[in-house]
């Protein structure tokens, strides 16, 4: 039986965990005032030589991370990941940090483990500084400046590098969006398609531009999709995530916003902490309600609401992963927020030609059609959005299936009539345009 990719990934990193374990046992012996066991020292020298070769040739941990790291940074990352990679090392770290109820190493323990003297301690702190690769690329989480605070690997990092599925795939306040679609399914003007592909560049080439070329890390990237309901904003987000091979999560802000002071920020932190380091795209709908033009602060609640928005913006900008905000009302957005987006794409209502293409794509492909069912005619007949056409195309198919018939203009006319009626307004046959003559009698009730 051939080894899986997860087994191969785990095997390549095994020497790192073995070295961390040996360093832990040698430190424990030193603290007890005992000489270092000769067999442990021999094994450590052998492992050191192997790891030097691996790192020189870009193998193991060195080849798994998105940016070149120094030897010290690789040592720190290995120690921080070790408790998740090999849980027994978490127990070892707890014995080396008495009174600490968690398995992750502190800066103080790392200084001992890696035998860093006081004169070189500055190098360790520099490796953990906010501007360091370990922090800029979201590899290690540092909670405060206290040398006894635990250092943790980014959420999901260890599982990803070892080829394991994440232990907890859920995101607080978010739901997965499963739309199977590709670029050929999008019906948009060529310049909008180009802008969507440009957004992908910010994701796929970030390591080169930021890591190799030294470009500024702007976080994200963050895109704003604007346009009326049903014009394909979520559909386009799904196409992008499918191109990446990542999941798309729609964030339900109603589940995150709380009337209790401080709770909204905590909920947002849980969401972004859970998403940190995981390959996924986050989508926030109705961005206009969040980032609307700011008015005067008239009461404490207004001031607190502004604080919540500021906190959300800060988390979005610092998040190392793509975020897509959608809005139906671009004019309601505060212009001051525009600079925060790497890409802004307007989704127009489809013209007659685009509507004809949408009818062709959205009618069930294997369904029989009557000879007079002309998608170009349907596109010219009624001014619908892509979302309207999707619903009407399926409804027409169900009406035809109920009659054991091929889909015809009468089925589509009734389906479009029902779709237009969802708005709750009074309808007249004229609303169907040239499709009106095909509306079955009795449908006006």
From TrEMBL:
Protein keywords: ATP-binding, Nucleotide-binding
Pfam family, any one: AAA
AAA+ ATPase domain: residues covered: 219-351
Top-level taxon of the source organism: Bacteria
SMART domains given in the database record: AAA (SM00382)
GO molecular function, one term: ATP hydrolysis activity
Family listed: Belongs to the AAA ATPase family.
PANTHER family: 26S PROTEASOME REGULATORY SUBUNIT
Protein name: AAA+ ATPase domain-containing protein
